[in-house]
Design goal:
cell membrane; membrane; transmembrane helix; Cobalamin biosynthesis protein CobD; two-stranded antiparallel sheet; mainly alpha; 11 helices; Cobalamin_biosynth_CobD/CbiB; two-stranded antiparallel ribbon
């Protein structure tokens, strides 16, 4: 492991960090990712101008990500006492996870829809997606929330755990910062088309394997053999049509596992974007947001259980 941790320690720290995230949630003040976002905005304002926008975007990405990743790695190295070093790895992972945040931002949307509070559901949904929710229907709001849960379950939980396994706390930090920059700069608008291209492509590369592991997990956790077959077929048939090489597998398999229809038209930056259909079944309704959350939660349990099982097998093999 690039982190220098043995796999048993890695598995234990994953469990600890997930439990901390579910218990405490995000730090309300001075969250490191919020500070990173402010630094990234300052870099973008400074460098996203003039000619050579792609090169400027690449420079901005390096200035944003590499010094902080190096600092995290240096602090891990400096904390030479193994228990302290392990605790710092777990703390870094905790700061990078967003599982409770997904729950706290999405389940209130389902609750608002259950109470027929469409204005409230539109307001809550606008906090988590970039699409226009001003006149969105219940189906459109449910699609937005469920898609966010499925995709961000990968970004904020599973891919972060994957990079923690590969490179410990600094690996999780590197991925989450790269993913944050993609969310901030990876738009195909006149302002970001060239400047954000590097951030988008780097995130695609870092997310390639985790996204497919997430899609496979959604397939495995689909109910019954028919549900698993449906999730697999949706992944194979629908993902290639999606613009994002990683969101496509994740959301198509997730929609197939839920047995609902996601995707379709949505309004971004004042323009209707005709996106491919995802999943198979009736259009999603408010209660399906809870089902999408449960799929993400069960997938988290699966990943932690698999990590612990692999750690136990490795310990037995060395006994």
């Amino acid at each position: 492991m690039l982190s220098g941790l043995n796999f048993s320690t890695i598995a234990l720290l994953m469990v600890v960090a997930v439990l901390l995230d579910l218990w405490w949630g995000e730090v309300r003040r001075w969250h490191p990712l919020v500070g990173f976002g402010n630094w990234a905005m300052a870099l973008e304002r400074r460098l996203n101008r003039g000619d050579m926008r792609f090169a400027r975007g690449m420079l901005a990405w390096m200035l944003a990500v590499l010094p902080l990743t190096a600092l995290a790695a240096l602090l891990v190295w400096a904390l030479a006492v193994p228990p302290v070093q392990a605790a710092f790895h777990a703390l870094l992972l905790y700061f990078c996870l967003g599982m409770r945040s997904l729950r706290d931002h999405n389940l209130p949307i389902a609750d608002a829809l259950a109470q027929s509070d469409l204005p409230g559901a539109r307001r809550l949904t606008s906090y988590i997606v970039s699409r226009d929710t001003t006149s969105a229907s219940e189906v459109e709001l449910t699609k937005a929330s469920a898609e966010s849960l499925l995709e961000n379950g990968n970004d904020a939980v599973f891919a972060t755990l994957f990079w923690f396994i590969v490179a410990g706390g600094p690996g999780a930090v590197l991925f989450r910062m790269a993913n944050t920059l993609d969310a901030m700069w990876g738009y195909r608008t006149p302002r970001f088309l060239q400047f954000g291209c590097a951030a988008a492509r780097i995130d695609d590369a870092l997310n390639y394997i985790p996204a497919r592991l997430t899609a496979l997990s959604y397939v495995l956790l689909a109910p019954g053999l028919h549900g698993k077959r449906r999730a697999w077929q949706c992944w194979r048939a629908q993902a290639p049509a999606w613009d994002s090489p990683n969101a496509g597998p994740v959301m198509s398999s997730g929609a197939g596992a839920l047995g609902v229809q996601l995707g379709g038209a949505a309004i971004y930056h004042g323009e209707v974007e005709c996106r491919p259909t995802l999943g198979d079944g009736p259009p999603a309704v408010g209660a399906d947001i809870h089902r999408a959350w449960r799929l993400v939660a069960r997938t988290t349990v699966l990943w932690l259980a698999m990590a612990c099982a692999v750690a136990a097998l490795m310990e037995l093999s060395h006994a």
